[in-house]
UniProtKB/TrEMBL annotation, chain A:
It comes from Macaca nemestrina (Pig-tailed macaque). The lineage of its organism: Eukaryota, Metazoa, Chordata, Craniata, Vertebrata. The keyword Chaperone does not apply. This is tRNA pseudouridine synthase Pus10. Protein with different functions depending on its subcellular location: involved in miRNA processing in the nucleus and acts as a tRNA pseudouridylate synthase in the cytoplasm. In the cytoplasm, acts as a pseudouridylate synthase by catalyzing synthesis of pseudouridine(54) and pseudouridine(55) from uracil-54 and uracil-55, respectively, in the psi GC loop of a subset of tRNAs. tRNA pseudouridylate synthase activity is enhanced by the presence of 1-methyladenosine at position 53-61 of tRNAs. Does not show tRNA pseudouridylate synthase activity in the nucleus. It catalyses: uridine(54) in tRNA = pseudouridine(54) in tRNA; uridine(55) in tRNA = pseudouridine(55) in tRNA. Transmembrane segments: none annotated.
UniProtKB/TrEMBL annotation, chain B:
Interacts with F-actin. Interacts with G-actin. GO terms for molecular function: actin filament binding; actin monomer binding. Keywords: Actin-binding, Cell projection, Nucleus. Belongs to the ABITRAM family. GO terms for biological process: dendrite morphogenesis; regulation of actin filament polymerization; regulation of filopodium assembly. It is found in: Cell projection, Dendrite; Cell projection, Growth cone; Cell projection, Lamellipodium; Nucleus speckle. It comes from the Eukaryota. Actin-binding protein that regulates actin polymerization, filopodia dynamics and increases the branching of proximal dendrites of developing neurons. GO terms for cellular component: dendrite; filopodium tip; growth cone; lamellipodium; nuclear speck. InterPro entries: Abitram, Single_hybrid_motif. This is Protein Abitram.
Amino acid sequence: MFPLTEENKHVAQLLLSTGTCPRCIFRFCGVDFHAPYKLPYKELLNELQKFLDTEKDELILEVMNPPPKKIRLQELEDSIDNLSQNGEGRISLSQDGSIASKNSNLNVCNVCLGILQEFCEKDFVKKVCQKVEASGFEFTSLVFSVSFPPQLSVREVRSFACIKLYVKKQSLSLGRDDIVQLKEAYKWITHPLFSEELGVPIDGKSLFEVSVVFAHPETVEDCHFLAAICPDCFKPAKNKQSVFTRMAVMKALNKIKEEDFLKQFPCPPNSPKAVCTVLEIECAHGAVFVAGRYNKYSRNLPQTPWIIDGERKLESSVEELISDHLLAVFKAESFNFSSSGREDVDVRTLGNGRPFAIELVNPHRVHFTSQEIKELQQKINNSSNKIQVRDLQLVTREAIGHMKEGEEEKTKTYSALIWTDKAIQKKDIEFLNDIKDLKIDQKTPLRVLHRRPLAVRARVIHSMETQYVDEHHFRLRLKTQAGTYIKEFVHGDFGRTKPNIGSLMNVTADILELDVESVDVDWPPALDD
Amino acid sequence: LSKIPCGVVAPEVTMPVVPLFVDRYFIHWYKADVKGKSCEDHCIPQHSNRICVTTLTESHPVLQSGKTIKSIPCQISTNCSRLQNKVSGKCKRGAQFLTELAPLCKIYCSDGEAYTVSSCVRGCSMEVIENILHKPSILQEKPSTEGYIAVELPKFEESKNITEGLLTQKQYEEVMVKMTDCRT
């Protein structure tokens, strides 16, 4: 059923005569159900023609200025017949009000510039889908985002303002806000087409995004004229190539009064020669997260790549040894590695290991069974003896919070090999076993002072356990608050950590080896291997 | 390597297999006869991250036996107190900038002598005399470590130049050999 009614006739007539396509006419008339938009273009043209044909008598156009003129319906019909032809010239309302019927060029809609003409039909959708399929992404749903050139809004407002001028107020029962939005209508039509072509539902929450950007260089000036009406709507901003962003244009359109608008644009926009161009068709998948725990068995391995002035100082890194495999399997563009705290190059991580999470950016492959993840874990473990990984699993972005929580709140246990300048006996270290919840103050260690703020950190050594080795060596196991600098607690860092092992024992102490025995965070969940 | 005190052999003191913490990450620079004052030598351990610590060498008069430190005021001049140095943030905003000749503090001894400790390097002051303020005798007990006078952060661009006016350990030892009047 044709969605337009008697009261829409004048508007429809006028819009058609200025070069507006049927779907945009529907939008201006407030047609807000999907079905009519989905009909094929040619059919819509025919239906529209039939609808406008029902009155054989002359249409009277009442205008405010100049006095009313008559338009012969036949001329209008001729011009509609010429729609599918590729002729030059256009229909325009000339000064005396008669429609000059040259060969019409309703090929390109003067409002949507082709968006609701060829760019919402099956052929175009197919083209986009071909690109999507060629991109090699794995997806089970998609969100479709489309971007139109800002001048479409200008044209729409302009067309509406001019139409209002020429049609008697009563017959135009619609306001500017009743116009159905271009993007909405576009999605009504294209979403089912995309779904059908790619075999997946459209889901606003999908991580897989297909985006299409349109541009129309020919009419960029439409926006520039806005600046003439309202110069302070378009202040040049730093780092912005064009001042005429969609935001700025929309703001200006809302701000500018109708009479000022009409002074600048007294007549409806004309049909351009060409339709919009497709600036880009891009696909991207939102990041996925993989978590686990790692052990570090090397005393010569940094957490992150150690590169100074383009020169790599130490081979490889914890993050590369784990992430490189994930990057390959998930076919991701890049990764971000984070962990619940970290250890120095020369420190081993034993026990259950340290929790970590890797964000894989723009992954092409995202679906893995738990078996496949287990195999991936095995692969990582087989490829290096410097690190080992456990509890590897996919997690959500929200879960990462647990890990960072651990960094600040949870306790850690360490094992250190300590040297003393004075000779010691077993009895000299026993008292350390009895010290519980020792409060220490640590000024920012000199070794990190160049990149950390100067501060004093109060920390707690919860408990200690000693193991005598010889006159100048003993092993110390400690359980400490998160954020404690262990090495500095042993050697004192020029006395900037107080108390320290040296001050407690009244010796000069140094740390020869340090191992992380446990990171007491219960995330990610342990998996039975 | 850390020096064994002159003339004293301490049988219990043995060197670890690896260099001590102060030697592992620090290069020791020296300035002899600071401000022309005989024997008032300073030692500046510099970390591989360019941070410098100002300390006194064992030949410094204040560290000789019999000297008692009376006070170490932090007021350098009417407008400048080293304790007013408030450093904040990673970029160390608010830090006082010190040149090589800037005075860090004055040490007053009970025998009436006063000694000025100088910065010796250019950089932002991180910390001055905080560690010895509560117990000045620490300066004499542990001059190379806990008894440090100041911590400075040189500008990144200047990191390579700051030690230009200073002596290496080897150069200093040669100077010491020549000047015997510091040794009593």
